[in-house]
């Protein structure tokens, strides 16, 4: 595999961009080697500047659930662009997408569009604080909610990978209002709640976390959180930036039947353009400016091009529930194939899997929270990643990520992935 153009571009990029990338995990530091510079993508494939083709299992970290360069979304964007790219004034399309989101996501009665998942979570916490008149909030160890100051405390994925989970620049004053709990541990929440009576505004979590690798909620865990929050007047926020429109059209909340007070969305919602959103119960969302006193704004929020892409994506998912059956089938085939290979080779690993998300952990222990995820052999993962890449399969460049499957994965491509996986596992153990 020749990657000389990518290498040259990376060297040049480092002169002008910190670390050569606009988001840290793209730099491949956790897996070694240089990052690939991408020229284009189509369907199940991504192509680097040296014209190598790779089967995609990250899909832009989730958004490309229908595969890359989807003609329907592309047409919607081109059509919208013919009328201008930004107005800074309300448009009919914003009502259309807001209405659609409220019909798709069970907890959302009103919604505000923003430009990223980071903005969505920062805003949701501010609104929950304004609504309750309380300052503190609970976050789970290893969960990622974007790069807002108050979330950069045990923040999973990029932060683990970079080895500095507590970022310089986040003040002690900010950090003291973020209470940390291990995931899947209701006792720990009860203790925090008892020690901070009537001081906790919100509990935010990824209902099915994907940012410490994929981890599943234990039976009764989400129900338990819902009960505690109801009892204590705490705003329960599901960060479904990753899981929204992916695990089901209504996200994890639909799949598990647990309705949070607020929900944050991103990734798929923009169809590949930069979009986020937060929404929830009417009475809470009525606190948002200009309806209420909590300020939140955005020059490019609800941008007409971004809304056209998002609407096209969401309308399709809403009208084609069979997408989820198809994605679950693809997920099952890949994970079952992996398990067959692992058994055949006599290797012990943990695979966590739900629908079109999975993580293969290089540990034989059960992975149910951040501490157990960290038992994984990250050096071995790095070798596995490189081996898969050389066999033409593009994985997330860190052990602590979920993979995101798309409907573009045909049976033929799935077989190629399974063959590459078996060969890679064999290779890294020799
Ligand atoms: C990706 C992600 C975010 C941050 O979204 P950005 O658009 O990258 O700012 C927040 N929460 C979760 C769960 C995410 O996966």
UniProtKB/TrEMBL annotation:
The organism's taxonomic lineage, starting at the top: Bacteria, Pseudomonadati, Bacteroidota, Cytophagia, Cytophagales
Task: Write down the species.
Answer: Cecembia rubra
Which cofactors are reported in the record for this sequence? Answer: pyridoxal 5'-phosphate
Query: What are the BP-aspect GO terms?
Result: protoporphyrinogen IX biosynthetic process
Q: Which reaction does it catalyse?
A: (S)-4-amino-5-oxopentanoate = 5-aminolevulinate
Q: Which family does it belong to?
A: Belongs to the class-III pyridoxal-phosphate-dependent aminotransferase family. HemL subfamily.
Which InterPro entries would you find in this protein's record?
Answer: 4pyrrol_synth_GluAld_NH2Trfase (IPR004639), Aminotrans_3 (IPR005814), Aminotrans_3_PPA_site (IPR049704), PyrdxlP-dep_Trfase (IPR015424), PyrdxlP-dep_Trfase_major (IPR015421), PyrdxlP-dep_Trfase_small (IPR015422)
The record ties this protein, via NCBIfam families, to: hemL (TIGR00713), PRK00062.1 (NF000818)
Which HAMAP family does its entry note?
Answer: HemL_aminotrans_3 (MF_00375)
Name of this chain's protein = Glutamate-1-semialdehyde 2,1-aminomutase
Gene, per the UniProt record: hemL
Pathway(s) of this molecule: Porphyrin-containing compound metabolism; protoporphyrin-IX biosynthesis; 5-aminolevulinate from L-glutamyl-tRNA(Glu): step 2/2
Q: Which UniProt keywords apply?
A: Cytoplasm, Isomerase, Porphyrin biosynthesis, Pyridoxal phosphate
Keyword Glycoprotein appears in the UniProt entry: no
Q: What cellular component terms from Gene Ontology apply here? A: cytoplasm
């Amino acid at each position: 595999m020749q990657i000389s153009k990518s290498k040259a571009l990376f060297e040049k990029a480092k002169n002008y961009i910190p670390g050569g990338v606009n988001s840290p995990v793209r730099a491949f530091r956790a897996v070694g080697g240089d990052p690939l510079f991408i020229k284009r993508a189509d369907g199940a494939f991504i192509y680097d500047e040296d014209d190598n083709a790779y089967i995609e299992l990250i899909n832009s970290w989730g958004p490309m659930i229908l595969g890359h360069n989807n003609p329907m979304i592309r047409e919607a964007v081109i059509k919208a662009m013919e009328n201008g790219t930004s107005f800074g004034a309300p448009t009919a399309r914003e009502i259309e997408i807001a209405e659609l989101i409220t019909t798709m996501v069970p907890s959302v009665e009103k919604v505000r569009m923003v430009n990223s998942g980071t903005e969505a979570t920062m805003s949701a916490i501010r609104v929950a604080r304004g609504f309750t008149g309380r300052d503190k909030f609970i976050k789970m160890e290893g969960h990622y909610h974007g790069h807002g100051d108050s979330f950069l405390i045990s923040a999973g994925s990029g932060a683990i990978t970079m080895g500095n989970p507590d970022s310089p620049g986040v003040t002690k004053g900010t950090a003291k209002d973020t209470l940390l709990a291990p995931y899947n541990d209701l006792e720990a929440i009860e203790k925090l709640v008892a020690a901070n009576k009537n001081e906790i505004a919100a509990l935010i979590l990824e209902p099915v976390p994907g940012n410490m690798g994929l981890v599943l909620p234990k039976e009764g865990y989400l129900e338990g959180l819902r009960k505690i929050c109801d009892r204590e007047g705490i705003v329960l926020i599901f960060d479904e930036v990753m899981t929204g429109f992916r695990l089901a059209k209504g996200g994890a909340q639909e799949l598990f039947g647990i309705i949070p007070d607020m929900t944050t969305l991103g990734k798929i919602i923009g169809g590949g353009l930069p979009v986020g959103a937060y929404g929830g119960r009417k009475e809470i969302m009525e606190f948002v400016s200009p309806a209420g006193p909590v300020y939140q704004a955005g020059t490019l929020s609800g941008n007409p091009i971004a809304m056209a892409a998002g609407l096209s994506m969401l309308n399709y998912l809403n009208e084609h529930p069979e997408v989820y059956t198809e994605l679950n089938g693809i997920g099952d085939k890949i994970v079952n194939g992996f398990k067959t290979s692992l058994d055949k080779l006599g290797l012990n690993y943990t695979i966590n899997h739900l629908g079109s998300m999975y993580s293969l952990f290089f540990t034989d222990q059960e992975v149910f929270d951040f501490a157990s995820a960290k038992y994984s052999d990250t050096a071995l993962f790095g070798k596995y990643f490189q081996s898969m890449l050389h066999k033409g399969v593009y994985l997330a460049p860190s052990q602590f990520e979920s993979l995101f499957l798309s409907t573009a994965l045909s049976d033929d491509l799935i077989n190629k992935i399974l063959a590459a996986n078996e060969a890679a596992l064999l290779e890294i153990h020799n």
